[in-house]
Amino acid sequence: MAWGDPDHLMMARSSAKPMQAAAMVRSGLDLPEELLALAASSHSGESMHLAGARSILAGAGLTVEALQTPDDYPLEPRARDAWIQSGRRASSLGMNCSGKHAAMLATCVQRGWDTATYLDPQHPLQQAILDEVRRMTDDEIPEVGVDGCGAPVHVMTLSGLARSFGRAVQAEAGSPRHRVVDAMRAHPEMVGGRHRDVTAFMRAVPGMVAKDGAEGVYAAALDDGTAIAIKVDDGAARGRQVALAQILQLLDVPGADSEAVAALAEIPVLGGGHPVGTVTSPLHP
To answer: Is 271 exposed, middle or buried (0-12, 13-18, 19+ CB in 10 A)?
Structure first.
């Protein structure tokens, strides 16, 4: 099924993180499942996420100062508010990509690669990631830009993004791709956070792996290899959750928590603090 042009070129943003993490594992990164899930995350900035990023860095003999993520507040509003109320300022650790960056640095230490230039597109790590992205998507990757966190971001098709997720869940057990998928499914709270829809989706649909991305991107795959990729053209994030939920309703996934999925299929619009509308989709199961 397709709506719009699935071969239109776009940037997958953080939905590409499972591919990036798979490339790191293939390059020698060896982390416990919980921390490997964090390597593929856009975390909320909760204490478990911050401790996890510190742990990855410490295991490589590094400190937070090695991170080249821009200073930022936690992504999730509750975590951000608690952070500010505690008097903390924006930091590289609080930025939602710090888990990925910590894992990138740990990979560089493992391979003996330079850690000061790990974000350079020509760095061996970034070249390994580019190769993995090409092989997982079957796309040429005509351009490489700079993501919000400072890491390279790859131009691909929506179809290619979907292919990458389908191939990851169907990869051989124990392979780098499958290890990342298993880690994300086993620790969905590390991929997002306790109040994030990406975590709720993985808890509601057994065997599904999902990853949200900026500018209205979402990608997911079911255990049988069925893959879903979404890009909201205007970049609005609120549409992606509704689209994924209603596509899952259309698929009628066996064993899924239908009530939990249905709760994600609509988002209330408030006016004056009261419900005045709903973000919904014309798709109906």
So the answer is: exposed
